[in-house]
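Input:
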Amino acid sequence: MPSSIALEIHDMTVAYHRRPVLWDVDLQVPEGKLVGVIGPNGAGKTTLIKAVLGLVPLASGKVEIYGQPYQDQRHLVGYVPQRESVDWDFPVTVRDVVLMGTYGRLGWFRRPRRPERELAEACLEQVGMASFARRQIRQLSGGQQQRVFLARALAEQAQVYFLDEPFAGVDAATESAIVDLLQSMRSAGKTVFVVHHDLQTVREYFDWVILLNMRLVACGAVGDTFTPENMQKTYGGRLTILDEAAEAMRNREPVR
Amino acid sequence: MTGLSLSDKVTIGAALLGGAAGVAGTFAVLRRRSLVGDMLAHASLPGVCIAFAITGSRDLLGLSIGALVSGLLAIGLMTLVVRWTRTKEDAAIGIMLSGFFGLGIVLLSVVTRSSLGGGSAGLSSYIFGEPGNMVDSDLYTLVGVGLGVLLLVLLFYKEFKLVSFDHEFAKSQGWPTLALDLAMMTAVALVTIIGLPIVGVILMAAMIILPGATARMWTNRFNVLLILAGVIGATTGAVGVRFSSGLPTGPTIVLTGAALFVASILFAPEQGVVARVWNETRLRFRVAREHLLRSLYELNEPNFPRLAPTTFQQLLAHRYAQPWMLRWLVDQSENRGLVAVRGDQVTLTPLGFRRAAEATRTHRMWEIYMMEFAGSAPDHVDRSADAVEHLLPESLLLELEARLAREGRLPAIATEVPASPHDLASEGNSS
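Output:
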C-alpha cells in the first residue's frame, strides 16, 4: 500500500567539510501540501533540499519519498535549482532546457522525440513562456529564466517538487503567476517544497511550513506552526553553542 | 603503408587532431576547464621521457601511455591539493603545470645526453611539436582517437549537454555526473596526448581552447557549436601545416587558430566587434535624428496644425552645440524624406511629422511615467527620458501606453487606425 507521506526525513545530519550545517532533522510531510521552507540566511534551507535530493552526502540519517529510499524514487521528484547555479550564456534554447526535464525518464542514449517536444511545449505554455521556445536563454530576464526552470521541472512529471528560491529576482507579476501555478499543482495532488524568504507572504502562499535554523525548529500546518513563538526561535539569533560545536568539528578540536 | 607523401600525411594528421581537439575542447571550454587541458599537456612531458627511457623507442603509442600516466598523476595531485590545503584551483593548476614541466625538461636533457638507442633526438620535438617524423602508425593512432572522440560525443550527446549545462540538476535525475564528467575530460586528455608530437606540450592547450572559443562567436546553438568547433579545428590544423615550410609546425598551427579567433572577434555577426560598433553607431545616428525631429515638433507645437519652417538659428538655440553636426543631421534627414530644406529653413514633411510625433510621444510617456509612478523630480526626467526612450522595445512601449491610458493620463490617441475597408480574410494569407 503506497504511503501518503510524501517526504520523511529520519534523524538527518549534513556536514560540509566536516562542519555540520544541519543537525538531527526529523520530519514528515504528507502528500498534497504546498510547503514553505523558512529560515534566516545560513540556516541550511538549500542544504536541506540538496541533501534530500542526494546532491550533498548525509553525515547520518535517511530520506524517504513515499516510504521508499530516495534512490529508488527519483522518478517521482522534480527539482528547480537556484537560478544563479547555471551559466545563462550557455548555447542552448529555451526548449532545449525544458527538454532536459525529460532526460531522466528517457534514460541512456535515447533522444527526445515528438512526445517529449510536445510535453515541453505544454510545460512552457503552463508557465506562460510558449512564445519563447526558440529563444536563446541568454536573452531572458530573471523572471523568465525562473519560469523556464519551472517548466523544466514540470517536464519531469514528478509527484514531489523541490524549488530553491523560485522568487529570487522575480517581479511581482511573475511571482503571483508562479504561486498560482504551484497552487494548482498542489490541487492536482503534487507536493511542492519552496525555499522562501519573504515572511509577509508565508500565510498567503503555503499551507505547511518547515522552520529551520541549523536544526529543525518546527514542521507542520501553517496555522499551528507559523506562530510568533516559533518565529522567535527561528530568527532569534543562532544557537551559539551549535555554531561553536560545528566550528570545533571542522577544526577537530574539543570544545573544552 | 598508406602510400601518402609525408606532407599529405602530416596535413591529414593535423586536420584530424584539430577536429577532435575542437570537439572535445568545446566541452572543456563550456565547463570552464580550459586550463586543465593546459596542465595536462605540460605535465605529460616527464611521462614521455620516462616511457622513452624504458622502451627505448619513439613509438607514439608507448610515449602516449607515459604521457597519459603523468598527466593524470598531475590532475590527481592537483585535486588532492585543492581538497586538503588552502590552495585554490588556479594556483594548484599553475603549480602542477610548472612543476611537472620543469621535471620534464630536466628528464629530457638527461635522456638526450645518455642518448639511449641514438634515437632520442626526436624527443625534443615534444616541446614545440615537429610532425616531420610522423610515420604511418602515428597516423592510424590519430584516426583511431579522432573517430573515438567523435563516437563518444555522438553517443553521449544528450548526457554531455545536460551535465555541461546543469550539473546538479543532472545529478538530481540520477545521472552519474562524476563518470560523465570524467568521460568528457578523458576525451580531452586523449586528444591532448595524441597531439603532443605534432603541436608540442607548450602549445597544445591552444588546440583545445581556440576552436571552441572561436566557434562560440558564431553560434548560439549547441549542436552547431560542436560541429563548427570541429571544422575550425580541422581547418586550423591543415592550414597551419601548409604554412609551416621552414617554420616550426606547432606554432604555425596555433597562430592559424589564433588568427581565426581574432577574425571571429572582429567580424562575427552580433557578437563581433565590427557588428557591435556598427550597431552602436547606427543607434547614435537614430537617437540624434529623433532628437532633431522632436526639436522640430516642439518648436512648431504652438502653431499646430500649421507646420512653419524652422530656422537653423532656432534649432541651434534649442538643442545643438555644433553647427556642422546639425547641418549633417538635417542633410541625413532630408535624404530620408523626413524634412524639406530651403536655404536655412527646415520644414517637417508629412512623414517627418509622423515620426516626430512618435518620438515626442514616447519621450513624454516616459516622462509622465517616471514622474507619476517612479516619483522622479520634474527637472530630472527630461534627461533620463533622453537616455531611455530610444532603447525602449516596442512591446514595452505598448505596455506603458496601456498603463497610462488606464490611469487616464493619456490623451485620446492621435494616430488612430481606421477599420479595414475590405474583408481581411479574403487576402489569401491563411496563417
